[in-house]
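Lab notebook, bench 4. We co-purified these components, and the gel suggests they stay together. Before we commit to crystallization screens, I want a quick structural picture of the whole thing.
Request: model the full complex, all chains together.
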Amino acid sequence: MIYRESGQYKTSYSADMAVFPLRQDRIGIFVIIALAYSMAFFGSNFMLQAVLIPFLIFSLAAMGLNLMVGYAGLLSLGTGAFMGVGAYACYKLMTIFPGVNVIVWILASGFFSAAIGVFFGLPSLRIKGFYLAVATLAAQFFLQWSFNRIPWLYNYNVSGAIEAPLRTLFGVPIVGPTATPEVRYVIVLTLVIFLTWIASNIVHGRVGRQWMAIRDMDIAAELMGIKLLQTKLLAFAVSSYYCGVAGAMMVFLWYGGAEYNVFNINQSFLILFMVIIGGLGSLIGSFLGAGLIFMLPIAMGIVLPAIFGPLGIRVGAETIEHLRFMILGALIIFFLIVEPHGLARLWQIAKQKLRVWPFPY
Amino acid sequence: MNALYQIFIEPFIFMGEAPDLLIQTIWEGFVSGILYALIALGFVLIFKASGVFNFAQGIMVVFAALTLVGFYSMGIPAIISLILAIGVMFLLAVTVERVVLRPLVNQPDIILFMATFGITYFLIGLGEFIFGGEPKVMITSQLYLPEGRTNFDILGGFVTIQHIDVAAAVIAIIMIAVLGIFFSKTRIGRALRAVADSHKAALSVGISLNQIWVIVWFAAGIVALVTGIMWGARSDVSFALQIIALKALPVLILGGFTSIPGAIVGGLIIGIGEKIGEFYWGPLLGGGIETWLAYVIALIFLMFRPQGLFGEKIIERV
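Here is the predicted assembly.
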């Protein structure tokens, strides 16, 4: 009843093809963004540092992977390594040019990641589907090895790790040990909203339709005149850009430092799961999937002791870790059986039901 | 100029200088190649019969080994533990078929592939929950597997060969031969190949898909158990082993996804190529190139022969 579109007449083609055609949707987006910014004032340090900032960063990485796997149909297992490329590129840029604003460098480091992504995407014209995943696995292991074995990348320091130096914006420290979670959260939120807006425009435009055409049947797409190699490489480039920026934000706006093991194959799998559970081919699915998979251990750490504590059964951290793997695996299978299109499809169905509520259809 | 010399001439001089080292390296590569081939064999079995790329093969190896060691540590004699472990793998096959494969019948391959991701993570959690995360020792001597090593004096130096490696190679070759005969000569083997070609056609001839899937996952489970015993005998049984299963991917690409002899040939090429590359060319690049050399070899192979050495040429259906 509240989600009706009656009374909202479209008087132009652009209004008809808008991304959010209902006024309620548009209001909803503004409310969500306003709520998100207000969390900077009302959220506790733990909430910001351990829950919201990583949720946003993983959503960005999942969005990047979703662009490649969900929209273009190119399976990639190298996400962790592309995040690492962005992080190390940002580190080198920050240390070589300390005077330039760090946000510029975070956004620029994605381009290095995109270049590496294009290089490892070159085989995609000859091989497709599952075999392409092996090519990206080669990228993952090779890049992870090079993070460790190329000392120039971590400025020859002894520990082999990179850490975030102090950087300020208008006098307020935003990167480094003294940056407060609130400031970092606002920066991350702004960057994620900006990049999501760009991604939304890409997937609703010509490029997005080209990707979806390639995903559905690439031979027909080629016959229609879509240049396969350029479009696939563009998918690799954009996806790696997003993953690179997410990696740079992960190291400099969340962890504060990193070493090569942070960007291992498990990271790649984790983000792939976020994409699968969230829904392939949907931007909101990236957020939902990241939220579910990232919040799962935190929620379990709170809920399980609350349930079992009064019964006298001690639920230790290692048990939670084991149960987290088991629940994650069971969730993946459950979602693939029940709703292969993921949480985003469930959200769409919910919205559809709301539109006709209280009628069933 | 110096770089060209270092890449193309010097390693071969080094090879010629110490031929016993070369033979040792080749033997090490052969053994690890046989072990990769064993893991790849499990993949090939399931892919041939159900078209599913079973990412969970690696964790099935670990799980099988852990079950065996777990039963033995409860005091059950070794041979009975082995039979019980085989029984557990059968139960696993039935459960997977009932819970995962049956509801996902007719879904695209990518969905089934991701479902095996789910199985992997579930088994990791379950294994750690039941058996604990610390590495265990494989019960090699109790299973009557040989231990110890012999030294051969060859070509001026000496080469060390571990008995367990020879046993692993022999067992692997026997198992591959048995599986090959099983697939080509028996009725069930023919049914498996029919299911691999087309599910609908197999159903129309009267082959029960569910039974076939249970059989093939059970066979893969036995292969996983043998692999786990062999791998565990060389190094301890721990969850790090399941990452090694990722190495089976280049093996499959080289050999072809549906070919059992291809798994062997691919495994040997990757195993020997990896060891020789690491030993003779590794120091040029700073060492540790074993982690990615196999994938790069597979990648180069993919560019020129995507179906592998023995696989079937992929026919694009529009």
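The two ends of chain B are 50 Å apart (CA to CA). Worth comparing against the SEC data before the next meeting. Chain B touches chain A through 46 residues (CB under 8 Å).
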